[in-house]
C-alpha cells in the first residue's frame, strides 16, 4: 500500500479478515422517522434550578476575570447538572449518538456571558480543542460570505447546504443564538445504520469505504502531520464501527500529484453513502430554536445542514456557537484515527493544533483565517 512520504510512520488501515463483517446492532442503529416521533427521547429541558446555577457560575467567572479560553470545570461548578452530564455521556457514547438540551438562556446574556456559559458547560464533558487554523476553541457557525469551493473554504461560514460529514473531535456541540429567517435545518444520520445498509446492498462498495481514502488538509497542517492523510470512512474497532467522512476533502486531495486518483468504484461507493445519508428514510431533520444546544458524537453520526435565507438585520441573522470536544471518557479510538489530526497525551483527538498558534475563544464571528480579520460584529 502506498503511504505518503509526508507521514511515513502513519498507521495503515486494514480490512477485516472476514468480509463482509457482521452487521452492527444496538442503540446506535436508528432511523430518523422513528426518532422524530419521539422527541422526548433525545431532547430534554433544563430546569429552573439548573439555569439559576448556570447564572451563578457565569457571575463567578466574570468576577474572577478568567479569560474564556482558560476556564476549567473547577472554575464553573454545576453540581445540579450531574444528572444532565451523565445522561449526555450515556446518550452520546453508548446510545443513539446525539442529544439536544433546551432552555439555555441565550436571549438574556451578553456575548461574553454566552461564551463563558457555553464554554463552561463544555468543560464538564471534555476539553475544547482548536477547530481551525486560527486556534479557535469557541467557533461561530454563520454566513460571512466564504466560498466553500475554495481549497481553504469552510462551508459552515456560508449559507449553502452542507453535505453530510463528520468533524475531527469526540463531540461537536452547537448552541443556537439566532435561527435563520428560512431554512438552516440540522440533519443527522446514524453512520452505523448506513454501514449496515451498504453491507446489505453492496458489500463490494463497503470494501471501498473500509479501504484507504486520501483526504486533503486544506493547508491546515497540524504539528507532525502532512499535506494530506489516509483514513477509511468506516473503521471497525472493538466490535463497533467508527466513521469519519468529509467528501470535499477527498475531492480536494486530487490536487496533489502523489495522491492516487479516485477510482470509479470509490466514487460509486461515496455516491451511495451520500445518497443513503440524504434519504428521508434514514435521516433526522430538526429545527433549532434559540437556546437549543445540540451535542453529537462524531464517531457514530454524520451531520449536515440545509441552505438558509438570513434576516436582513445583522443582529437577527443565523448564528450558532460551536465547540469541538476531546473527551477522556469517550470510546477508545481506532489507531488509524491518529491520521486525522493526531492524538493528545490521553489518546484523544488533538484538534487543529498548528505550530505557533495560540488558542483563542472569540466572542464574535471572524473568518478563522491566518489574519483573523473580523468580518462582522454583532453588538450583543
What's the gist of this structure?
With 380 residues, the protein is α+β, with helices and mostly antiparallel strands. 24% of the residues lie in helices and 18% in strands.
Helical content band: 10-25%
- First-last Cα distance: 53 Å
Secondary-structure element series? HEHHEHEEEEEEHHEEEEHHEEEEEH
Task: Tell me the Rg in angstroms.
Answer: 20 Å
Domains (count): 1
Unreliable stretches: 1-5, 368-380
Under the CATH scheme, the architecture is 4-Layer Sandwich
The top-level CATH class is Alpha Beta
Shape: globular
Strand content: 15-25%
Structural class: alpha+beta
Stated plainly, the CATH topology is called Double-stranded beta-helix
Note the total helix count: 9
Instruction: Supply the CATH superfamily name.
Output: Clavaminate synthase-like
Mean pLDDT: 89
> Based on DSSP secondary structure assignment, what is the total number of beta strands?
17
Query: Main sheet?
Result: 7 strands, mixed
Can you offer a commentary on this structure?
The protein has 380 residues and is of the alpha+beta class. It has a single domain, classed as Double-stranded beta-helix, CATH 3.60.130. Helix content is 24%, strand content 18%. It is built from 9 helices and 17 strands. It has helices at 32-36, 48-64, 82-94, 111-123, 191-201, 203-209, 247-252, 264-278, 338-341; strands spanning 43-45, 98-102, 127-128, 139-141, 162-165, 171-178, 182-183, 186-190, 214-216, 228-230, 234-237, 240-243, 284-286, 293-297, 301-305, 308-309, 319-326. The strands form 5 sheets. Strands 1, 2, 3, 4, 6, 14 and 17 form a 7-stranded mixed β-sheet that branches. A 4-stranded antiparallel β-sheet has the order 5-15-8-13. A hairpin with a 2-residue loop joins strand 11 (234-237) and strand 12. It is globular. The termini are far apart. Residues 1-5 and 368-380 have low confidence and may be disordered.
Amino acid at each position: 500500500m502506498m503511504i505518503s512520504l509526508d507521514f511515513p510512520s502513519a498507521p495503515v488501515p486494514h480490512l477485516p479478515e472476514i468480509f463482509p463483517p457482521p452487521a452492527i446492532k444496538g442503540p446506535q442503529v436508528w432511523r430518523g422517522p422513528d426518532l422524530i416521533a419521539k422527541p422526548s427521547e433525545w431532547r430534554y429541558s433544563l430546569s429552573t434550578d439548573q439555569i439559576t446555577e448556570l447564572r451563578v457560575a457565569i457571575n463567578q467567572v466574570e468576577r474572577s476575570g478568567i479569560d474564556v479560553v482558560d476556564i476549567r470545570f473547577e472554575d464553573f461548578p454545576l453540581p445540579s447538572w450531574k444528572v444532565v452530564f451523565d445522561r449526555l455521556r450515556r446518550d452520546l457514547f453508548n446510545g443513539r449518538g446525539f442529544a439536544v438540551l433546551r432552555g439555555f438562556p441565550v436571549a438574556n446574556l451578553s456575548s461574553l456571558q454566552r461564551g463563558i456559559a457555553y464554554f463552561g458547560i463544555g468543560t464538564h464533558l471534555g476539553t475544547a480543542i482548536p477547530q481551525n487554523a486560527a486556534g479557535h476553541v469557541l467557533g461561530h457557525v454563520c454566513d460571512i460570505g466564504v466560498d466553500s469551493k475554495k481549497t481553504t473554504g469552510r462551508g459552515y461560514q456560508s449559507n449553502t447546504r452542507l453535505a453530510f460529514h463528520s468533524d475531527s473531535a469526540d463531540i461537536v456541540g452547537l448552541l443556537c443564538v439566532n435561527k435563520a429567517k428560512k431554512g438552516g435545518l440540522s440533519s443527522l444520520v446514524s453512520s452505523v445504520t448506513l454501514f449496515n445498509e451498504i453491507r446489505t446492498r453492496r458489500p463490494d462498495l463497503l470494501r471501498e469505504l473500509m479501504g484507504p481514502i486520501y483526504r486533503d488538509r486544506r493547508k491546515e497542517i497540524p504539528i507532525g502531520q502532512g499535506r494530506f492523510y489516509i483514513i477509511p470512512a468506516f473503521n471497525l474497532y472493538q466490535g463497533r464501527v467508527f466513521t469519519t467522512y468529509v467528501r470535499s476533502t477527498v475531492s480536494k486531495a486530487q490536487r496533489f500529484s502523489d495522491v492516487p486518483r479516485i477510482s470509479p468504484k470509490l466514487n460509486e461507493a461515496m455516491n451511495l453513502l451520500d445518497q443513503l445519508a440524504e434519504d428521508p428514510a434514514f435521516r433526522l431533520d430538526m429545527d433549532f430554536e434559540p437556546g437549543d444546544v445540540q451535542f453529537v458524537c462524531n464517531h457514530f453520526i454524520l451531520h449536515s445542514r440545509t441552505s438558509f435565507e438570513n434576516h436582513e438585520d445583522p443582529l437577527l441573522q443565523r448564528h450558532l456557537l460551536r465547540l469541538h470536544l476531546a473527551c477522556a471518557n469517550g470510546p477508545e479510538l481506532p489507531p488509524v484515527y491518529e491520521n486525522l489530526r493526531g492524538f493528545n497525551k490521553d489518546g484523544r483527538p488533538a484538534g487543529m493544533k498548528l505550530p505557533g498558534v495560540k488558542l483563542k475563544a472569540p466572542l464574535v464571528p471572524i473568518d478563522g483565517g491566518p489574519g483573523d480579520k473580523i468580518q462582522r460584529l454583532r453588538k450583543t
